[in-house]
Amino acid sequence: xxxxxxxxxxxxxxxxxxxxxxxxxxxxxxxxxxxxxxxxxxxxxxxxxxxxxxxxxxxxxxxxxxxxxxxxxxxxxxxxxxxxxxxxxxxxxxxxxxxxxxxxxxxxxxxxxxxxxxxxxxxxxxxxxxxxxxxxxxxxxxxxxxxxxxxxxxxxxxxxxxxxxxxxxxxxxxxxxxxxxxxxxxxxxxxxxxxxxxxxxxxxxxxxxxxxxxxxxxxxxxxxxxxxxxxxxxxxxxxxxxxxxxxxxxxxxxxxxxxxxxxxxxxxxxxxxxxxxxxxxxxxxxxxxxxxxxxxxxxxxxxxxxxxxxxxxxxxxxxxxxxxxxxxxxxxxxxxxxxxxxxxxxxxxxxxxxxxxxxxxxxxxxxxxxxxxxxxxxxxxxxxxxxxxxxxxxxxxxxxxxxxxxxxxxxxxxxxxxxxxxxxxxxxxxxxxxxxxxxxxxxxxxxxxxxxxxxxxxxxxxxxxxxxxxxxxxxxxxxxxxxxxxxxxxxxxxxxxxxxxxxxxxxxxxxxxxxxxxxxxxxxxxxxxxxxxxxxxxxxxxxxxxxxxxxxxxxxxxxxxxxxxxxxxxxxxxxxxxxxxxxxxxxxxxxxxxxxxxxxxxxxxxxxxxxxxxxxxxxxx
Length: 621
Prior knowledge:
Number of strands: 11
CATH class of the largest domain: Alpha Beta
Helix content: 40-55%
Radius of gyration: 28 Å
Number of helices: 23
Strand order of the largest sheet: 6-5-4-7-10-9-11-8
Largest sheet: 8 strands, mixed
CATH topology of the largest domain: Spore Coat Polysaccharide Biosynthesis Protein SpsA, Chain A
Structural class: alpha/beta
Distance between the termini: 50 Å
């Protein structure tokens, strides 16, 4: 049992000088750490931003209880059992639940005029005293394990934390006010107008759709060709690396949902990261009602640098909401995002740190390259691999080099934590939170660069799950474009003309191609002698221009596929590249599914199951 409350508070607020030892010396004095082990760890501390207790804990030299007891003795404070003696909810409300998680503390009891604050690091009290006293009055400290503090805050403030995670992004940049179709008079009027036009003049209506489809195709071809040239253009001199930089703490957030057997593989893959374990803070985020994943993690032996955080139930259940909740627990100055099945390059975090250190503060995000470790599973996995090779090896680098807005991928993302918090992190209601965040970063003057490192993941190579996943991406693109175009004038001023036009071509052009591709396919009937009604009202020159654009598009896609595949190093024959012509129609099916869901279930997250083909094809490199 802990010491009496009066004794703890008196010890904490005493004005008598307390002779404190450095933490290493205190642990050595108490016989917890041997001298040689202590010297070895201290020799690494000069180039690392980690605290000595964290470094010792990560190396398995001390336990949480050892550190707490030594800290309590060294600082002359007590250890409190928060499970048996719960914090006063009024004090927690006064300080704020999110700040409790951010600073690793919780206001516990009030004794007279003094508020007793349970902390994991008593050495933080001088730094936080001004903030604490501003909200709570005079304070003193007691100690409690970090897990107990987090559990106590979540037990009392789960609902408030859930709401906070859902509303971090300002409402004018969020889609959370999106109305379902039957509640939106504007949407219903637009659909009614389209239906009337189609019935009143079907031939002219079809011609207009054909022109829109051809125009969007032409603009996308121009963008792809420009990105291809930019990506292949020899790079300029690399910035000089920063001298004397130290390794910062990196928090990696992995959102899990219904993952019954992913934990052992996830631990093994992240353990291959060549980065100091004491500076690695891996947070596994699990929904409160996801008993499958919680049980799987409970059966796993997680390393010291990996912890499990529970997301309280809320009004939506999406990956970005889980990421927002986990951000308050993160300890790192850099925040990275991985998916459950990811296998990153071992030196990935070192490359990320080096690139951030030699970049200016305007570079807020680094996007890594994604590839697949099961490309040989079937035809769909081959096509997915070729598509990603072109996108991440050519299109995205080209877009970045042209200074356009980079639509982020959902994983292998690394952010400056301060910028994430400034922007409100992720939009909890957007089902492509990554692309949305990339656009918001650009709107607020920040830049995304690509980092030359690869993460391998599992290709979704079953037809129905592939369509579901792609429909979620397309729905998010639709929603992201619509949200940011609420005030096009403001978007123009924030992005500038060049990037504004780039956003229209990339987002609106992509959406139009997915939805209007069948209109272009209908032209394939003309050589077979079938009369196309729309061609009767279009000038011949326009028709031939459309045919030329279509041929140019096919050639561009072939070039991007072949060059991207070569750059990826994947052992696939380039003869698979032309078969993408049969692969892309699946995206049109997904596009119509996305349009229906946008009108009926805009925030529904169609879950992608991981770990199905982990044992097939190439093993993670």
